[in-house]
Amino acid sequence: MFSRLFAGFSLHFGDPVVNAELCTAGSPPRLAANGHFSVVFGGSAQKPRTKYYRHLLAFIFAVDEINSNPDILPNVTLGYVVFDSCGEVNKAIENVLWILSGSTRNVPNYSLWRKGQVTGLIVPCNCLCFQISYGATDPHLLNRHLYPSLFRTLPNDRVQAEAIVKLLRYFGWTWIGIIASDDDNGETQSRELKRMAALYGICIEFSVKTGPDKGKNQLETIESNKHILKKSTATIVLVCGAISSLLMYVTEYEGEVLHNKTFILPANFYAQRQAEVAVLLYNGSLAFTRPPKTMPRLQKYLETVSVSSRPNDLLLQEIKAMHLHCLSSNTQMNAKYTYFGIHLHKCSRDELLSDLFPQLTYNTYVFGTTYHVYKAVYAMAHSLHEMQLYESSLSLGKTLTSKHKLQQYLRRIHFMDPAGEVTSFNENGELPAVYTIVNYRRLPNGSNLMKLVGLYSASVPDRKQLLIDVSVIKWKYYSSEVPRSRCSEDCPPGHRQVSQESIHICCFGCASCSEGEISNRTDKGSCEKCPDDKWPNKRRDSCIYKSSEYLSFQSDPMALVLSVIPLLFSIGASIILCIFILFRDTPIVKANNRNLSFLLLVSIMLSFLCVFLFLGRPVDITCMLRQTSFGIIFSVAVSSLLAKTMMVCIAFKATKPGNTWRKWLGVTVPNSVVFICSFIMIIICVTWLSVSPPFQEMNTHSYPGKIIIQCNEGSVIAFYTVLGYMGFLAAVSFAVAFLARKLPDSFNEAKYITFSMLVFCNVWVTFIPAYMSVMGKNTVIVEVFAILASSAGILCCIFFPKCYIILIRPQLNTKRNLLKVTS
């Protein structure tokens, strides 16, 4: 029992001449599919195209196949009503008004809604109507607010533009031209290509338009295009819209301006007229095509089409009348051709259409656009089927009166068609974009070949969207070398792009990378900085590790010198200490407070040895020890000198009878002075290590190409506090020694201490500006020199004179001589 329902849906095919909307009209107990085709182009007097007639046959075949399939719309017969727009806008509008009116008269703004004739509608008559298109690619139709009921079995021009631009980027073509047809289709495609090219950094050198083959402005168009193309340097040209190949051929023939151009053709490209000219012109070019599909059952159906199998098909009779001059059963059609001087004769009605026309115009083996027609019919049928199944508890009439029901089901369908393809619409109402890329070839034997060389799929991750086999591509003049199309040649490695006075970012000069930067590719627009531990090589195309700089024992002679000198001085201090120990009971050793002398010699010897903490590769522990150990050792040495000088002054003041200074004689005062002065330095150093200790630092910025491994003092205040405290002790020692310089010579070290402190102060006063004016290992050299000089000054000034008396003039080292000097 069939449902009493006539529901129509519109499949809008052919040129995008009108948005065919449909409300329902009905009487027979079946669903009707309204198909709107463009089969005749250029008006009623022009030739019908057999390749487009094949789309109509695929539409009819799909409807018949669905009706014979019990799994789709059971108990419902799907019918169809087909209108031919003849390639004219006015005719297309007339057909749409007929559908909307639901009667034989075309009534604008009227739609049938009569009780008793229909039991249900796909949508109310004043609402949106549904369309599935296989030819509308305008990206403006992506607006789902304005066109919520439009679905397409092919992607829009925006997706195709992105695919073309990614192909350009793959081959490094950043300098291109555009030739577009002078119509809305060419304008839309070129606009999308320009927008997408700008996003990917591709520049358009020129954009020209071509008009129809005939017209009063044809010569001006040719001359204008020749002038632009002749000056152009771009070798890659994108083609948009329906280009007149004849016009382009004339342009090339008269000016030879296209002989070095390689064309990139879009999927919806077709050349008007002169197919042989088009093959010659586009030889070696690349074209985007919709993936071909083999459909054995449709192939078999198309191979059986003849006038006898379709006796009521007036379009088929007109195809035979126009191409083969065969009489038709329509007397008006015969009269029309007779009027135009075409003599018609009687032909066999059993001749198969596939035998009468070549595969170029009636291909029954591989299907591209025809397959999208077939898929559109199945998409609508499956949406109706799903809606019927889901709401089977309601009557079908009530189901179809819901305003948005069919649109919702069409949006959610997911099925596999008889050809094995999964069909589902994305959020834009389109099927996922897939393009095949073919290479046009004109073979030496005169035959033509379209070689598959690549694939583009928009639904996969970006890195895998474009697949190209460059090895099988034959370019212009059968060359295997990829053509170059750039405004400026790539900057070599080690260089960067420099903008020139041009409106195009693709036109640039080259300049060497700045210091510390590299460029390791030929297409780099800018240089990139090397990591902190690396530096550019001479060519500035790669980063190499920086050389490390520090006072190394293995490679730096200065480190060896600075290690030998303190070692010799420390040995000298050790020898003097041994001499003083051996002669500790002699008057000159006893008279100068031998315990303080021993302590002073040990501290001087340690000060020489602490120099080794400054040599070699710095690490955190040596950084913490070098300044603190140096400060503490020097504070002990200087405080020992201060104690010795104070004891000389106290001793001479205590010689007078009844003097109160006698109670200060002994070891308490010098030991206390040494302990207190040294303990203050220890507190300073401990505080320094606790708050902000020194640490190893990799200085990568002071010297280009070098990493200076140095010690960061942590706290600059603490560092200069140590120096300042040592300077304070030295100044006090110098002042006390200077006041005691006139005491008797045999008991008095004051003038030697004065001179040693003068050397000490001069060294460290000079050290501060020198230390602040140098960097890297030179700071270590300056500090080591200051330590050696000040320590050597104390050693030489204080102990060399005594060693001279002990070893060279022992006759002076007697108590008698000392008493004589005193008296």
Write the layout of secondary structure elements.
Layout: E1 8-12, E2 31-37, H1 50-67, E3 78-84, H2 89-101, E4 131-133, E5 150-152, H3 157-171, E6 175-181, H4 184-199, E7 203-210, H5 218-231, E8 236-240, E9 242-244, H6 245-255, E10 262-265, E11 270-272, H7 275-281, E12 286-289, H8 296-303, H9 314-324, H10 331-339, H11 353-356, H12 369-390, H13 396-399, H14 405-412, E13 415-416, E14 422-423, E15 434-442, E16 448-457, E17 466-468, E18 495-499, E19 508-512, E20 517-518, E21 528-529, E22 534-536, E23 543-545, E24 547-549, H15 557-582, H16 587-591, H17 594-609, H18 620-653, H19 668-691, E25 695-699, E26 706-712, H20 716-739, H21 750-773, H22 777-808, H23 815-822
Parallel strand pairs: 1-2, 1-4, 2-3, 4-5, 6-7, 6-8, 8-10, 9-11, 10-12, 24-26
Antiparallel strand pairs: 12-15, 13-14, 15-16, 16-17, 18-19, 20-21, 22-23, 25-26
Subcellular location: Cell membrane
Main location: membrane
Domain G-protein coupled receptors family 3 profile: 558-822
Explain what you see:
The protein has 823 residues and is an alpha/beta fold. The chain is built from 23 helices and 26 strands. The chain folds into five domains: 8-154 and 366-423, 3-Layer(aba) Sandwich (Rossmann fold), CATH 3.40.50.2300; 158-289 and 433-478, Rossmann fold (3-Layer(aba) Sandwich), CATH 3.40.50; 311-365, no CATH class; 495-545, no CATH class; 557-822, Rhodopsin 7-helix transmembrane proteins (Rhopdopsin 7-helix transmembrane proteins), CATH 1.20.1070. The strands form eight sheets. Strands 7-6-8-10-12-15-16-17 form an eight-stranded mixed beta sheet, sandwiched between helices. Strands 3-2-1-4-5 form a five-stranded parallel beta sheet. Helix 3 packs across helix 4 (184-199). It is rod-shaped, with a radius of gyration of 51 Å. Mean pLDDT is 79; it is low at 1-30, 41-45, 110-128 and 396-401.
